[in-house]
Design goal:
- The longest helix is centred in the first third of the chain and has 21 residues.
- The termini are far apart.
- Strand 5, helix 6 and strand 6 form a beta-alpha-beta unit.
- The chain is globular.
- Helices cover 46% and strands 12% of the residues.
Length: 242
């Protein structure tokens, strides 16, 4: 028996080994090689992955140096706003399903999630938890700058899928168990889904994002990454929200 994905055929024996390797990544225990769910393999070659990592290291190091004055300005603006910590860190799941801390410039009040995880509205409504400085940082995507450190250390890549919290991943997997296929690759600062799905604040959008992320996983290449980076930069320049 073989399972097909596009033009690639995965023999049952090979597929079983793949699922065994994914056993520690959160796949449901009742999923197996004969399951109707098709395994989606990474579309990028080993050489492509190696050069992509080299690119991430070099460019993130250069950007950290070049943007260091911007880092200082953002740091002091946040401190002047409410005196709280400038850097916000939050646990996400990344490559191999391992938890890591994603870093951002803090754009919300320090007690923003005192009642538990909550997403900002994506319909243009103001989020009362966002500070005045935070709104400015978000508008210009400056709050994402500390993720350059995540890229340098290898927790993230410039292009991948946006990393999510386990709290929401568990909910996504109740509807679609394929999320752990993404653990084959590093999450990204930007993504194909970010461009075409925008900010996700509902389960419907989360499932749509997963479909786009899986499409990226199966088809990713240097050319695709280049287009995603170019479009992301263009959207930031024109002030598009995503």
């Amino acid at each position: 028996m073989a399972v097909k994905h596009g033009k690639t055929i995965f023999p049952k024996k090979k597929l079983r080994r793949v699922f065994e390797n994914f056993g520690t990544m959160g796949l449901p225990a009742d999923m197996h090689a004969g399951d109707k769910t098709e395994f989606i393999a990474d579309g990028m070659t080993g050489f492509g992955n190696s050069t992509k990592r080299l690119f991430d290291i070099l460019v993130s190091a250069i950007c950290l140096f070049l943007f260091s004055p911007v880092f200082l300005i953002c740091f002091f603006l946040i401190k002047l706003d409410d005196g709280g910590p400038a850097i916000f860190k939050q646990e996400r799941l990344g490559r191999f399903g391992r938890p890591f801390y994603i870093y951002k410039f803090r754009s919300m009040r320090t007690d923003a999630e005192k009642d538990g995880p909550a997403l900002s509205p994506a319909d243009g409504k103001a989020d009362p938890r966002v500070t005045k400085t935070g709104a400015f940082l978000r508008k210009h995507h400056l709050d994402e700058l500390p993720q350059l450190w995540n890229v340098l250390t290898g927790d993230m890549s410039f292009v991948g899928y946006r990393p999510e919290r386990k709290f929401y991943i568990d909910q996504i997997m109740e509807h679609d168990p394929r999320y752990p296929f993404l653990y084959q690759i590093r999450p990204g600062v930007t993504s194909y889904a970010t461009l075409y799905n925008g900010y996700t604040d509902t389960m419907e959008k989360m499932l749509r994002r997963l479909e786009l992320d899986l499409y990226y996983l199966a088809n990713r290449s240097w050319w695709m990454d280049t287009k995603i980076l170019g479009l992301t930069f263009l959207n930031i320049v024109i002030g598009k929200k995503f």
